[in-house]
Amino acid sequence: MKSLSVVLSDARATEELGRAMAASLSSRPGFALLLEGDLGAGKTTLVRGLVGALPGAHAAEVASPSFTICNLYPTEPAIAHYDLYRLEGQAPGDDLLDDLETVDTLVIVEWAQYLVGPGRPEERVECLLSSREKGRKAVFRAQGQKAEGFLDSLARKLVAMSVPFQSPTGDDT
């Protein structure tokens, strides 16, 4: 399982990371992005940066789907943005489980810690966002060939943007 850590100075840096993630996506992602972190850790901010950098973003108003459970964004690739916060302890609906199997849509799940058991897709990038005294930290773990390819691409984008990160081997880059 590949991993990558990025220290983020503020919300703007979190959105910038989302834009780098968008630039690292293929048109057929084939993996799910599972976000975990406390309230206010930057999950929706990260999604806002990612969605805002994709073709078709002008038609997407990114907001946390806490009450609707899912927002669909007409971007390329299409995004299905789920928020499981209100489902704590309940099984997710069939729509989410079906979406997790598609390759044409990037499924993003906030509060993914509530997605347990067979609901966790084999191809996935997990991102744990945590608040720090100054800023935030994002720790990514990729499982599966497509997810690992995305993480490799993201690392290259971060290097090109001169964003410091910690590589899977623990070396600072």
TrEMBL record:
What Gene Ontology molecular function terms does this protein carry? ATP binding; metal ion binding
Q: Which UniProt keywords apply?
A: ATP-binding, Cytoplasm, Magnesium, Metal-binding, Nucleotide-binding, tRNA processing
Species of provenance = Alkalidesulfovibrio alkalitolerans DSM 16529
Q: Which NCBIfam families match?
A: T6A_YjeE
- Please name the GO terms of the biological process aspect recorded for this protein, alphabetically: tRNA threonylcarbamoyladenosine modification
UniProt protein name: tRNA threonylcarbamoyladenosine biosynthesis protein TsaE
Q: Where in the cell is it found?
A: Cytoplasm
Q: Name one GO cellular component term.
A: cytoplasm
Instruction: Report the superkingdom from the record.
Output: Bacteria
Which InterPro entries does this chain map to?
A: P-loop_NTPase, T6A_TsaE
